[in-house]
Amino acid sequence: MKKIVLAFALVYTLFSCEKDEIGANDKNTLSLEFENLVGADPLVLNTKTYKNASNEDFTVSTFNFFVSNITLKKTDGTSLKLDNQYFLVKQSDPKSLAIELTDIPAGDYSSISYVVGVDSAKSTSDISQRTGVLDPASYGTDGMYWSWNSGYIFFKLEGSSNASTAPDKHFKYHIGGFGGMSAATANNLKTIEINLKNNPATVRSNIAPVVHISTDIMEVFGSSIKISNQNEIMSPTLGLTVSKNYQNMFSLEHVHNDKM
User: Fold this and answer.
1) Residue 158's closest CA among 168, 173, 144?
2) What stretches of the chain adopt beta strand conformation (E)?
3) Which residue stretches of the chain are H helix?
4) pLDDT tens-digit profile of 78-110?
5) Cα end-to-end span (Å), the chain
6) pTM, rounded to two decimals
7) Residue 179: is it exposed, middle or buried by C-beta count within 10 angstroms (0-12/13-18/19+)?
8) For residue 17, how far is the Cα from the chain centroid?
């Protein structure tokens, strides 16, 4: 009988410690790390050749996309929306592949959603409110803004292929368009949801989770995009098929909940 009481006491103590490990004001960072792939192979710019579903060879020289409107959902059903935070992920810049979200309240997070692109409100806001990665003047060769169309390029994939009909064998897919303000236009904003239910991100005062997300460029082509037919897609309307495809390129790799 004494052993049973001790066992219950031990269970109660462990349960109590687990409950008490979240303080009312506990916060930490939660990071998203993007691993860009082509099928099962790591994305390597300029030098590695791949083949899409149409058996067309291609190399990639540029791969960029915006991440915004991040929402973290807890296992208890409540959500945390991170307003006015915009990130530009660039394969050419390893630091940009990791997005660090700061001051996240402690808790167990079961899903993460984000938008690929820049929403209409921010896209049409005064230029003084578009700083950092949203500053059109800051891109240089990145060129993530259409000056002729006064809009952001949400997603950019460039490279070369023997299947391209361009004289220099290039292909360019620049996708933007938020649906228009005064009249409806093509909307290529795509919301991505990453389900963490089997392995929640457990933010604690001593745990800063890292969520690893795989990004498969092969999904961009799917079975509907052939470089031989479309080596350049630069308008929002023509980009609808591409954005529908790249909505499927994100998947959960794993979550690290290591103590600091």
Assistant:
1) 173
2) 27-38, 41-42, 50-51, 57-74, 79-90, 98-105, 107-116, 145-146, 151-160, 170-176, 190-195, 201-203, 210-216, 232-233, 250-256
3) 2-20, 120-123, 218-221, 240-246
4) 999 999 999 999 999 999 999 999 999 999 999
5) 40
6) 0.89
7) middle
8) 35
